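Priority: low. Protein: serine-type D-Ala-D-Ala carboxypeptidase. Input follows.
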Amino acid sequence: MTTMALNSRRIRGPLAAFLLALSLSTSAHAFETAARSAVLLDFDTNTVLFEKNPDDEIPPASLSKLMTLLIIFDELKRGAIRLDETFPVSENAWRTGGAASGGSTMFLPLNSEVSVGDLIKGIAIQSGNDATIVAAEGIAGSVPAFAELMNKKAQELGLTHSHFVNPHGLPDPGQRVSARDLVTLATHIIRTYPDQYPLFSEEEFTFNGITQRSRNPLLSLGADGLKTGHTAEAGYGLVASAKDDAGRRIVFAMTGMKSVNERATEARAMMTLGLRGFENVVILKGDETAGEVPVTGGIAKSVPVKAAGEIRFIEPRGTGSPYQTEIVPVGPIEAPVPEGRRVAQMRITRDGQVVREEPLYAATNVERAGLLQRVQEQVMSYFQ
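Result:
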């Protein structure tokens, strides 16, 4: 069964939240997916557009390599390692993740040295199990110690349905993730490591004379990352992100599909839903004033107001009636009014129902008027 959900951090009232969630649900009423679990997120508004069993705990397979890469990016960012630094290829890495293991591999030679930069590409593009072990041993000394770093980061990010035992995702009964956690993880990578993220869009990488292509079926269709995964227990999974022509980004995770072809078909359908089935409705631009609020005792009789940033909704394309807005002052506003002071609330309604409220702030200073002007104002107000 598929369901829809809406991030309602700023929605006021249960009825309003229900109406908006129902609106989103209606747009995808006919959408079905063969994935065991799935989450589709609008990146900028953090709105969940679609979900199916989002918190089911499943084996991560190679999708756990997203957390491995995140730890590597963290170590680079804090200066603990360098891109040109090299790590040794141990026998453990060679036997467990190398060509003889039968899994995805970077084909690292035993007892060789490999740079961190190449390891990152070997993990992100080739999904090399051997590359993850070399990175884990080089950063933390051992796979178990590296798994501790992974779980510490998972806790920091609020991944409540995830636990990691190894850096590559090969089967282990103690290892699990959820679709919601995978989307949270991918979103964090995109936001926090913009310099590293483009690596996920590279379609091939050559190392040791061997060229391998990314397994992400969406890269040729407009997606710009992130990762695929597969084991017999987990099925075929994918975490992906893409932008539309206007720059609106979606991020989604899908797990438990039965074949490479099914993964490609279902992922393409999910990407189409996210990019074409929804649109942004801008209520107020970030640099735009919403109107004015009356001020008493000031050199000006009103002050222009604006929001802290752009106010917008993500909603199903072609949704019915327009929104209405109303500016509600926060009590009588008396001068002096400093720029940035909260002076009003924008009430946004649709079909008579309040769907959202946003604070509004003074866009300029309004100084206190002189005594004579204030007396005249009081006299005039008395006769009104």
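The domain at 31-276 is CATH 3.40.710.10 (Beta-lactamase). Confidence is low (pLDDT under 50) at residues 1-23.
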